[in-house]
Amino acid sequence: MMAGRMIVVAVRRSGHAVGAITMAAGATPAVADVAGAAVPYRLAPGTPVFDVPAADLAVAEVEFDERVFQDVKRARMLFPGGSEQSASLAFVKAGTVEVEVDPEEDTLVIKAPGSPGEDVPFWALIQPQENGPSSVVTGEIPKGGVQSEPVAHGLTKGDTYSALVLVAGLTAHQEEITVP
Questions:
Q1: How far lies 180's CA from each of 14, 110, 116, in Å?
Q2: What is the pLDDT along the chain (180 residues), one digit of tens a residue?
Q3: Neighbour tally for 88: CB within 10 Å
Q4: What's CA 12's distance to the chain center, in Å?
Q5: CB burial string 3-28: b at 16+ within 10 A, e below
Q6: Whole-angstrom Cα distance, residue 136 to residue 121?
Q7: What's the pTM?
Q8: Domain ranges of the chain
Q9: For the chain, N or C: smaller number of CB within 10 Å?
């Protein structure tokens, strides 16, 4: 790695950075070398810690930018054509994201502000507040829409979950959801 460069660990689907490191010159490490099985991620003090699975992550080497360390929830990697080698760093705007659960259909919908000019991918990590396995839900907010199509969630009625919702182009969002 050249001087003035850094490694950013990001959720592949949305591009949201979940961590960054600086290191001595050498080859860009693999996700497993940096993340192990998962990267712990917390949006703010006092909020839940989410273990983002390594299988959903990518690493990319980019020019050093201290803003990644100062406000990681706004940092986003752009992976044109899915290539980690040609990734670039961007910073996203704040926006209100909402999770709506339909208990009758066992689905959820992700709502975001505005009407995007293209399909916008999202990635959500949902973990129970009590013991139990986490689940990842993905989908898209279609071009011109304000919400995703309903996505199956597999959550248990009556339970409460913490959700980390990453919508491409918006800051990371954490929400507590209860399945009615």
A1: 28, 17, 30
A2: 445 788 999 999 999 999 998 877 667 788 888 889 999 999 888 989 999 999 999 998 888 999 998 888 889 998 876 555 678 899 987 888 999 999 888 999 999 888 788 899 999 999 998 777 899 999 999 999 999 999 998 888 889 999 999 999 898 999 999 988
A3: 13
A4: 8
A5: eeebbbbbbbbbbbbbbbeeeeeeee
A6: 13
A7: 0.88
A8: 5-91, 98-178
A9: C
Residue 108 and residue 102 in contact, taking contact as beta carbons nearer than 8 Å: yes
Q: Which of 119, 127, 108, 121 is nearest to 167 (CA)?
A: 121
3-state SS assignment for residue 138: strand
pLDDT of residue 4: 78
Give the distance, in angstroms, between the CA of residue 178 and the centroid of all CA atoms in the same chain: 21
Helix or strand or coil: residue 148? coil
CATH 3.30.9 fits 98-178, yes or no: no
Residue 152 near residue 106 (C-beta atoms within 8 A)? yes
Q: What is the DSSP string of 38-66?
A: EEEE-SSTTSPPEEEEGGGEEEEEEE--T
Give every CB contact of residue 91 below 8 A, 6+ residues apart in sequence: 67, 71, 74, 75, 76
